[in-house]
Every structure is written in structure tokens, then in C-alpha cells.
């Protein structure tokens, strides 16, 4: 829902100011349209249905994976593609991965979005509408199948609990809209402590994030612990080299006291050797005795795209993790989700484009 347009529309009709809050409260609860908003006068509901699209996004396609993951491809009103993903976990967590831009101006070589043309920054409403889409899916499904017992993870519905900005785009390049969207997420049930902004290392954005009152989490996409390889994988490293980025993350920790997640996508024969694990451990090691552990590494099995990269084997990933932990760096291996539906960022849109 375009919230700016909502305010304008209500003001033009001379509606009291509380109407916008009422409408947002319904949307945040997972309403499917204005007709469900029973505390609004019927003529207003009719007028809004005619004048103001309920969502700023049109769903183009939706893919459902066997593991319960749902990936949605949307178009903005001006026809820009973007994607978002809902991941369902057996412990009840529901995590969404949202986009902050249509396409991406950065050109990481392993990323399907990076091979697309950059469209534009998304508005805060377009970001929030991705979350609302999945909120609706989960709440309408709960209404549809309230008591049917099921062992299928996809059939068990639950509120959305987590949000990560790891979809299309670099969130720090659109930080005003990202932060405005974050302010709304708690109304949908996603607290700031469970919201993660992921960056390739855009230092001005990391600095600004550390100045926010909202206790948002920071994730750093690192993917290589030496500048030459990192620049090859992520040209942004030429502008913000590894050591400076890690330093900015240490400053974030010092200010916010929130551990930084380091994302490391595992590419066979590229960044998965033992000595590369040691280099990563060195880069993230405490700089003085007694310093708290500021980083936690997430090793990400690679969802193959049309690029020339192949994912590391399960054994290589396990060995890499063991090497990190042996050198004092906590590490986990990310569960693979939605492999059967091209769940890597940008894959659906890239195939269409
Ligand atoms: S990994 Fe992120 S920053 Fe890099 S090209 Fe893909 S969307 Fe852009």
C-alpha cells in the first residue's frame, strides 16, 4: 500500500487523521483488501477500492518449493521487477528475505541480480508490501485450515518472525527507504532485533546504521578474505577494501553491542580452501586480549545461477567450518532453501528478463 498516497487520498476526502492508522492496522494484520475493514464507513471502503491499489506491487508469479519456501516475483506500478522469499522452518520460525532495489547497480559476479540491469530504488511502501504479501499468505492460510493436522511444513502456518534485507539490491544504497520500512515492520510482527540489513560493505551505510536507535542487525557479505579475490567476486571491494570494511563492522559492534553476521558463499575451488579459512579467521579475530567475539560466520551453500561458479561440496563446507571454529570464530552452515524453485536472489527476474 502506498502510504503517502493513502494519506493524500484521505486528506483530499476530508477524512479524520485516525483513518490512516485504522487502515494500516488492518493491512498489518494481513487483510486482503479494503472490504475487510469493517470499522471504516462503507462509502470510504468503496472509494478506496476504486482509487487506491491495495498493494503497490502486482504479483507476477509465485513458486512453492517442497521445503515450504515460497518465492514471489512482483512488478512495481511502473513495471520494475523484484523478488522476495518466505522461508518456513520446522521450529516455527518464518523468515522473509526482501529486496531494496529493482536490479542492482553493483555487479557481484556470482549473483543473478548483478547480471540484470539496475532499475531503481524501491520505496518504503514497496518494501513493506513484500512483507505484507507473505503476512497475508500466512494469515489467510491459517483462516482456511485452522485445525487440520499436518506434518507438511508448508501447510503449518505461523506469523512472520524474521526479516532479512538480502534480496535484490544493496540496502545501504537505499537506506532512507529501508529504514522507513523497518519502522513499520514491528506492526507486522517483526521486531527490530529480528531484522537484519545485509551489505556488501558500503561503509557510509554501516556508519549510518550504527547511529540508528532501532536495534537492527548487520550482516556483511564478505565471501573472500583477501582483497584480490574479493575484488574479483565483488568489484565494490575496490572502493571499500576488506580491512576498512571489517574495521567499520568493529565500530558498529562497539557502538551497538550487536554481533555482526559474516555471510560467506561457498564456491568450489574459488574461496573454499583450508588456507582461505585461516585467512578469514585472521581477518575476524579479536584485535586485543579479552575482546568479545564480534563476528559470527554463516557459510552459505551456493544456489547455482547461470554463472560459471559451482557450489562447494558438503565435505568442503564442513571442513571450512571446522577450520574457522578451531581458530576461535563461531560458524554455522546455512540450511539450503528452495533449491527446486531458483530461490537465489534475482534468479526468477533474470530468467524473465
Ligand atoms: S550480491 Fe547483492 S550487492 Fe552484489 S550484485 Fe547481488 S544484489 Fe547486488
Which helices and strands, and how do they pair?
Blueprint lengths: L2 H10 L5 H11 L13 H10 L5 E8 L5 E7 L4 E8 L5 E4 L3 E2 L17 E2 L2 H21 L17 E4 L9 H14 L6 E5 L3 H8 L6 E5 L5 H7 L8 H15 L3 E7 L7 H11 L10 E7 L12 H13 L4 E3 L13 H6 L1
Parallel strand pairs: 4-7, 7-8, 8-9, 9-10, 10-11, 11-12
Antiparallel strand pairs: 1-2, 2-3, 3-4, 5-6
Bound molecules: iron/sulfur cluster.
Tell me about this structure.
With 353 residues, this protein is α/β, with parallel strands linked by helices. The chain has two domains: 3-51, DNA polymerase, domain 1, CATH 1.10.150; 57-341, Aldolase class I (TIM Barrel), CATH 3.20.20.70. The protein has eleven helices and twelve strands. It has helices at residues 3-12, 18-28, 42-51, 124-144, 175-188, 203-210, 227-233, 242-256, 274-284, 314-326, 347-352, and strands at residues 57-64, 70-76, 81-88, 94-97, 101-102, 120-121, 162-165, 195-199, 217-221, 260-266, 295-301, 331-333. Strands 1-2-3-4-7-8-9-10-11-12 form a ten-stranded mixed β-sheet. The longest helix has 21 residues, at 124-144. The radius of gyration is 21 Å and the shape is elongated. The structure holds iron/sulfur cluster. Residues 104, 106-108, 111, 113-114, 168-170, 200, 345 line the site of iron/sulfur cluster.
Amino acid at each position: 500500500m502506498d502510504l503517502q498516497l493513502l494519506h493524500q487520498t484521505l486528506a483530499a476526502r476530508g477524512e479524520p487523521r485516525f483513518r490512516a492508522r485504522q487502515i494500516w492496522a488492518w493491512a498489518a494484520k494481513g487483510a486482503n483488501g479494503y472490504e475487510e475493514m469493517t470499522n471504516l464507513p462503507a462509502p470510504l471502503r468503496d472509494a478506496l477500492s476504486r482509487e487506491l491499489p491495495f498493494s503497490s506491487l502486482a504479483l507476477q508469479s509465485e513458486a512453492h518449493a517442497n521445503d515450504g519456501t515460497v518465492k514471489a516475483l512482483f512488478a512495481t506500478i511502473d513495471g520494475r521487477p523484484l523478488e522476495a522469499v518466505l522461508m518456513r522452518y520446522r521450529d516455527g520460525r518464518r523468515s522473509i528475505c526482501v529486496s531494496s532495489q529493482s536490479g542492482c547497480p553493483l555487479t557481484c559476479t556470482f549473483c543473478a541480480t548483478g547480471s540484470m540491469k539496475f532499475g531503481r530504488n524501491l520505496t518504503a511502501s514497496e518494501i513493506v508490501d513484500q512483507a505484507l504479501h507473505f503476512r497475508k499468505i500466512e494469515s489467510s492460510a491459517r483462516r482456511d485450515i485452522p485445525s487440520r493436522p499436518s506434518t507438511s511444513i508448508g501447510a503449518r502456518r505461523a506469523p512472520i518472525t524474521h526479516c532479512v534485507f538480502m534480496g535484490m539490491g544493496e540496502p545501504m544504497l537505499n537506506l532512507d527507504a529501508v529504514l522507513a520500512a523497518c519502522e513499520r515492520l514491528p506492526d507486522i510482527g517483526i521486531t527490530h532485533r529480528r531484522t537484519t540489513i545485509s551489505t556488501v560493505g558500503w561503509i557510509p551505510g554501516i556508519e549510518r546504521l550504527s547511529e540508528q536507535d532501532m536495534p537492527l542487525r548487520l550482516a556483511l557479505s564478505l565471501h573472500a578474505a583477501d582483497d584480490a579475490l574479493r575484488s574479483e567476486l565483488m568489484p565494490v571491494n575496490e572502493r571499500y577494501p576488506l580491512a576498512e570494511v571489517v574495521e567499520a563492522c568493529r565500530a558498529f559492534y562497539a557502538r551497538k553491542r550487536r554481533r555482526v553476521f559474516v555471510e560467506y558463499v561457498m564456491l568450489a575451488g574459488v574461496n573454499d580452501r583450508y588456507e582461505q579459512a585461516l585467512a578469514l579467521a585472521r581477518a575476524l579475530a579479536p584485535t586485543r586480549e579479552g575482546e568479545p567475539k564480534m563476528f559470527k560466520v554463516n557459510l552459505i551453500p551456493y544456489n547455482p545461477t547461470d554463472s560459471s561458479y559451482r557450489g562447494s561440496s558438503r565435505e568442503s563446507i564442513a571442513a571450512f567450518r571446522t577450520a574457522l571454529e578451531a581458530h576461535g570464530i563461531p560458524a554455522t552452515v546455512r540450511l539450503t532453501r528452495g533449491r527446486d524453485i531458483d530461490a537465489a536472489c534475482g534468479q526468477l527476474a533474470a530468467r524473465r528478463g
